[in-house]
């Protein structure tokens, strides 16, 4: 049994149209910008799934009702949760959430309405129904939902501190569910209490207190106290359990004579690979090597039993490790709890808090393992590109605001082929994963475009940082998997962000094109510029570019350079001076040859071809130095110079920033 779909209307940012979220089994990751509604969907799940519990930890108030663009507050909030794949046992436990016929599916509907009491105060009442028949639900139904929530701003130290409601106490109740288990644990502590009471010092303290009480109370009360290690009840034991980290001991220091006796006792002939000298009296033993040697297990156990462990209190540990400890404890609770009729849900906000990327990857793999083996459905919000880069494509849900309305696109709902998902997964490293957190995205094929694009936007007075534009360099020309995320194929489930794709049309490269330009024609020193010019005018754009053009739509714009970026940069005459200034520093001879042709009055198309050919072996370095020169023009350090952004790039930037 799992949550397949959630519909939320008029709750906080979610307006009267409502928003539908599609989820899957296992891990679901909700992404989006700050204040985009991610926490609201987590809270909507909490409100619905904890509706029948007395200690919910979350409640609706008037401020949770959506306020529209006219400043009018909604009078009704609706949350609908749809479940699928109920087992026979779950169908019985959640029968009132089914329609009575198809018991493999279930529905939970929660409605909050505002009203005014007799004094005119605005209050909130709720209605909780199940199934398509709107059956009233009894509180016992909710006892079969195991839900754990971890907020983004969590007080881990306090959550782990000994108390009746601590995570550790909850875990103990889960692993000791019946009286037999609890009596066994309690008897162990009773025995420990008796041993403590037998100590001479403890006995003296107890006797002193009772003697003083007798003097104070005389015959009136005649009370007696008893000193215990802990109150011998299961509730008290659970509430006093404490967590600490074992300090990792690398070596054990031991007297030479004592180690000699242990060697003789366990009949060990050689320890040279695990010991080294400290001084005349002591030897140190390498604990790790000792543990790894299967023949020395008895010696290892004997030495470990003799040493006093040094432990760290939770408060002495870093926030990152404490977050891991808290999640390990919480998931341990959920892993043990589920019975045949139950469903387990783990809601966690920003699991990346205080974790460096490597630890986050380990944590995410742990979530994956928990999902596979323990039937826990996990919902997490995140701002972490690192986490996204490790996730399955189908687990991602992208929230965004469009025209004042919150939307959510689930990538599992997009019409992506398995090979598309594999391509995306391969491409989505940490930097490319940032596309899911931006409002506007521009995809480029190489480092040259990635370096120059932001400078072009600044030159146009439309800086990318001001308009939340993310430049994604895919390091190639396989734009198709990315384009499919944004292009609408008719089902309207695409990502609605504005997306521009900037690429080269790579004309004259199709093998069946009679105007194909072969690679050996592009050597600067030997190139036939007239022949190349004629082919560029008559040749076809590449098959890849033709296909890419097909992805243009309402929120996707594909713009192609004629042949290549460098050729387009050199076509405007006003750009020549700046381009040659950069080329002077990289290929001075090539630059000098082009300047000579300009002095002779060579036409601009040929000059553009020569500049393109001159930088083919140094595109990255050329783009880097050109970006610096354009920046100087933008900030008016070179006020007399002009630079024209190529038309196709201008169109893409204007499309994104209208």
Describe the model.
The chain is α/β, with parallel strands linked by helices and 658 residues long. It folds into four domains: 2-153 and 328-394, P-loop containing nucleotide triphosphate hydrolases (Rossmann fold), CATH 3.40.50.300; 167-240, no CATH class; 248-309, no CATH class; 414-656, no CATH class. The protein has 25 helices and 21 strands. The strands form five sheets. Strands 2-1-4-5-6-7 form a six-stranded antiparallel beta sheet, with helices on one face. It has a six-stranded mixed beta sheet with strand order 8-14-15-3-16-17, sandwiched between helices. The chain has a four-stranded parallel beta sheet with strand order 19-18-20-21, with helices on both faces. α5 packs parallel to α12, α21 (576-586) crosses α24 (619-634) and α22 (588-599) runs antiparallel to α23 (604-614). The longest helix is centred in the first third of the chain and has 19 residues, at 179-197. The mean pLDDT is 84.
Number of strands: 21
Helix content: 25-40%
- Number of structurally distinct domains: 4
**Rg, nearest Å:** 35 Å
DSSP strand content: 15-25%
Q: What is the makeup of the main sheet?
A: 6 strands, antiparallel
Low-confidence parts, pLDDT < 50 over ≥5 residues? none
């Amino acid at each position: 049994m799992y949550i397949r779909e959630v519909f939320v209307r008029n709750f906080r940012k979610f307006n009267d149209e409502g928003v539908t979220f599609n989820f899957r089994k296992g891990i679901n990751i909700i992404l989006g910008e700050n204040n985009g509604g991610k926490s609201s969907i987590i809270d909507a799940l909490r409100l619905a799934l904890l509706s029948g519990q007395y200690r919910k930890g979350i409640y609706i108030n008037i401020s949770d009702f959506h306020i529209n663009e006219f400043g009018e507050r909604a009078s009704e909030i609706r949350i609908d949760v749809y479940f699928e794949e109920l087992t026979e046992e779950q169908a019985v436990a959640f029968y009132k959430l089914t329609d009575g016929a198809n018991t493999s599916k279930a529905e939970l509907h929660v409605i909050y309405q505002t009203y005014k009491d007799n004094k005119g105060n605005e209050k909130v009442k709720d209605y909780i129904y199940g199934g398509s028949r709107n059956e009233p639900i009894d509180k016992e139904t909710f006892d079969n939902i195991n839900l754990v929530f971890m907020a983004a701003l969590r007080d881990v130290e306090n959550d782990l501190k000994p108390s009746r409601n601590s995570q550790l106490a909850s875990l103990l109740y889960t692993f000791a569910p019946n009286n037999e288990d609890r009596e066994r644990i309690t008897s162990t502590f009773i025995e420990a209490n008796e041993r403590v009471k037998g100590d001479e010092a403890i006995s003296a303290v107890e006797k002193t207190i009772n003697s003083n009480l007798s003097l104070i109370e005389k015959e009136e009360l005649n009370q007696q106290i008893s000193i215990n290690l802990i109150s011998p009840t299961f509730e008290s034991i659970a509430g006093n359990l404490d967590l600490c980290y074992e300090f990792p001991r690398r070596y054990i220091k031991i007297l030479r004579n004592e180690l000699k006796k242990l060697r003789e006792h366990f009949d060990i002939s050689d320890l040279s690979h695990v010991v080294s000298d400290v001084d005349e009296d002591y030897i140190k033993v390498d604990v790790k090597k000792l543990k790894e040697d299967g023949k020395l297990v008895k010696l290892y156990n004997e030495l470990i039993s003799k040493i006093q462990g040094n432990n760290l209190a939770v408060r002495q540990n870093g926030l990152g490790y404490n977050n891991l400890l808290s999640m390990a404890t919480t998931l341990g609770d959920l892993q043990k709890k589920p019975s045949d009729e139950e469903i387990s849900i783990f809601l966690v906000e920003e699991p990346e808090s205080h974790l460096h990327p490597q630890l986050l990857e380990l944590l995410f793999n742990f979530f994956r393992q928990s999902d596979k083996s323990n039937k826990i459905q996990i919902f997490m919000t995140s701002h972490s590109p690192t986490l996204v880069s490790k996730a399955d494509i189908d687990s991602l849900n992208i929230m965004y605001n469009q025209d004042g309305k919150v939307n959510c696109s689930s990538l599992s709902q997009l019409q992506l082929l398995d090979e598309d998902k594999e391509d995306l997964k391969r491409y989505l490293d940490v930097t490319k994963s940032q596309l899911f957190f931006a409002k506007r995205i521009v995809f480029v094929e190489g480092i040259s475009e990635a370096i120059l694009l932001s400078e072009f936007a600044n030159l146009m007075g439309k800086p990318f940082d001001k308009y939340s534009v993310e430049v994604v360099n895919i390091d190639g020309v396989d734009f198709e998997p990315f384009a499919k995320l944004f292009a609408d194929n008719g089902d309207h489930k695409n990502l609605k962000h504005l997306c521009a794709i900037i690429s080269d049309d790579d004309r004259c490269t199709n093998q069946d094109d009679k105007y194909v330009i072969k690679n050996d024609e592009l050597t600067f020193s030997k190139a036939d510029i007239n022949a190349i010019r004629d082919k560029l005018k008559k040749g076809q754009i590449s098959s890849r570019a033709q296909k890419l053009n097909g992805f243009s739509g309402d929120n996707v714009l594909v713009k192609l350079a004629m042949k290549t970026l460098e050729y387009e940069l050199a076509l405007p005459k006003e750009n020549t001076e700046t381009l040659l200034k950069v080329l002077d520093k990289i290929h001075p001879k090539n630059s000098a040859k082009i300047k000579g042709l300009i002095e002779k009055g060579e036409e601009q198309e040929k000059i553009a071809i020569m500049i393109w050919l001159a930088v083919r072996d140094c595109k990255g370095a050329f783009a880097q130095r050109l970006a610096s020169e354009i920046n100087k023009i933008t900030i008016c350090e070179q006020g007399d110079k002009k630079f024209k952004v190529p038309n196709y790039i201008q169109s893409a930037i204007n499309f994104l920033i209208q």
